[in-house]
Amino acid sequence: MTHPLPYADSGAPQRFSVVVVGAGPAGLTVGTILRAASVDCLVLETETREFIEQRPRAGVIEEWAVRGLEKRGLARNLLDRAELHTACEFRFDGERYRFPYGDLTDSHHFVYPQPLLVTDLVREYADVRGGAIRFGVRDVRLHDVDSDRPSVSYTCPETDQRQVVHCDFVAGCDGARGVSRAALPPERVRIARHDYGIGWLALLAEAPPSTDCVLFGCHERGFAGQMPRSPEVTRYYLQCPPGDDVENWPHERVWSELRERLGAAGVPPLTEGRLTEKRVLDMHDYVVEPMVHGRLFLAGDAAHLVAPIAAKGMNLALHDAFLLGDALVARLTTGDGSGLDGYAQACLRRVWDYQEFSQWLSEVYHGTAAGDPFRAGTALARLRRLFTSPTAAAAFAEQYLGTAARY
Q1: Residue spans of beta strands (DSSP E) within 121-247
Q2: CA-to-CA distance for 7 and 374, rounded, in angstroms?
Q3: Residue 266 contacts by C-beta under 8 Å, 6 or more apart in sequence?
Q4: InterPro entries from the entry (predicted)?
Q5: Which of 399, 292, 284 is nearest to 348 (CA)?
């Protein structure tokens, strides 16, 4: 909800054309696009710079998203340092099946951990392009976003005083629990949500990947995945009950389950190492509509969440940011409001496409462990079809790489 303006005990009001709430990939990309066009903006972030540059998150970036960053001068380090992946591997029925999607599409994935991308974007926005950013702010509130004179207020961490920032537009990029989504009128919001009824134990291991690509283990004991992050660090996932306690997963049990679920004939043993992170993620999706209310435009997880089943979340955030950044520039520099008018519709086309694929892929990953012989049989049929039908393989590759709905 919006709040009355806190003029009492506030510092002198400031003005920026755009206030961006949240310094994740979406918010920083929007801000950097605006700065490149000489549009003044302010980014507000509740965490410290050090925190957002180290927060572990996703690492798979689709090629179209990288080209979008490159077009805007934001991919130099990424292109120099990212690993390129052109294949993935499924393991089921005790066998291994390599899926060379690069050969089918002439496209590939980039593996570049989100903390590195955020570090690059913060440096480009704040240090190179001189963008205004406030870290560690508290009690951020949005005001009058349904008018032509919106504003944002916050408590300054240094002075403990309220600051008021007037603006033309607000970009809400502060995630699922941020204030931007909460500012939408409840009676006008529809949240479409899907719960998978499963959990994933998310792990970071100080160990090199055991193969040169992503692994998907579809096993009767539950799904397991390996996602390389760097030559020294590997992300693993293990299906578990939703809400499970990480204390139920000591070191030896984790590696025992990974060995079992990712095992296949003729494969070398997993390279084990110290586990530096253990978190349980409850698998769910949501889509918030509308993504726009007055002068407030939501982007990224503030507007939609896709479970990490298909590694689509950061890519959707970047898609939103490209559209929103370009549309704000057009409106503020030339008066062309067509991009803002069509923003939500253009975002949601890709959002729903990715949601559908994530739901389909979940059944492939988890059907064999459902305890239902029918679901297990259909999941295995889908897996076998990927390796026996060129048409099915091409369709999967297109969706897996995000090339079906090009930006």
Answers
A1: 132-135, 138-143, 151-155, 162-166, 169-172, 190-206, 214-217, 224-228, 234-240
A2: 63
A3: 96
A4: FAD-bd, FAD/NAD-bd_sf, RIFMO-like
A5: 292
Residues 281 and 257 sit within 8 Å (Cβ to Cβ): no
- Other beta carbons within 10 angstroms of residue 255's beta carbon come to 18
Q: What tokens were used for 193?
A: 């949500």
- Contact call for residues 108 and 86 (beta carbons, < 8 A): yes
Is the model's pLDDT at 257 over the cut of 50? yes
41-45 and 132-135 beta bridge pairing: parallel
Q: In angstroms, rounded to a whole number, what is the distance separating the alpha carbons of residues 260 and 254?
A: 10
Other CB atoms within a 10 A radius of the CB of residue 31 amount to 32
Do the bridges between strand 292-293 and strand 296-298 make them parallel or antiparallel, or are there none, so unpaired? antiparallel
Sequence-distant (≥ 6) Cβ neighbours of residue 215 within 8 angstroms: 88, 89, 90, 91, 224, 225, 226, 262
How does pLDDT run across 369-378, given as a tens digit for each residue? 999 999 999 9
Q: Is 8 helix (H, G, I), strand (E, B) or coil?
A: coil
Alpha-carbon span 358 to 350, nearest angstrom: 12
What are the residues facing 234 on neighbouring strands? 205, 228
- CA dihedral over 216, 253, 249, 199, signed as positive or negative: positive
Report the distance separating Cα 21 and Cα 94, nearest Å. 48
Q: What is the pLDDT of residues 127-177, one digit of tens each?
A: 999 999 999 999 999 999 999 999 999 999 999 999 999 999 999 999 988
